[in-house]
Request: fold
Amino acid sequence: MKSAVIVFPGSNCDRDMAVAIEQASGSAPVMLWHRETEIPAGTDLIAVPGGFSYGDYLRSGAMASRSPVMAAVKAAAERGVAVLGVCNGFQVLTETGLLPGALMRNAGIHFVCRDVALTVGNNQSLFTSRYEADERIVIPVAHHDGNYFADEATLDRLEGEGRVAFRYAENVNGSARDIAGILNEGGNVLGMMPHPERASEPAHGNLDGARLFQGLVEGLMATA
Reply:
């Protein structure tokens, strides 16, 4: 399996993401600088990691979404390549238009960094096949602008189409309907605010995030 992790100025979770993918797949991802204009041929998975791309100036993810590489990421996603955006990566995907809605300032106007409980909303996707429907899992969050917002029609559509991958099991940031992760219409793009790469090895004390990467790799290998 071939994968790539996008690296922006200000990214600080890119290597964590690369380690989690390598542990699950056995192959190290390509670390792709944001000025690149092409995704390596044959890439099966593109990860847009967390951090503070461009220092979160202007608006979280807004400047990164205009980086040259994101046009190539968008084109790859439209061809069916799997794309995973975590935390700031989720913000970048909404700013790019690959996912609907926006990530706003937390309701309490505080940076939140702790383990949180989630429930699995859809376990039939490429990213969630290792979970049970409605299963309660624990994955860390670390964000200041993690409050997912969309209009009521969009929220109804996401829920009606089974595109809510994860929900917060507790009120973390005021997110609309407690949404923690959503899928695109094709099911090959996932944006999520919690960090699965921070719950992916025994040293973390929790392997709930590892299951996301394991299921993703299995699904991609099965269709290769």
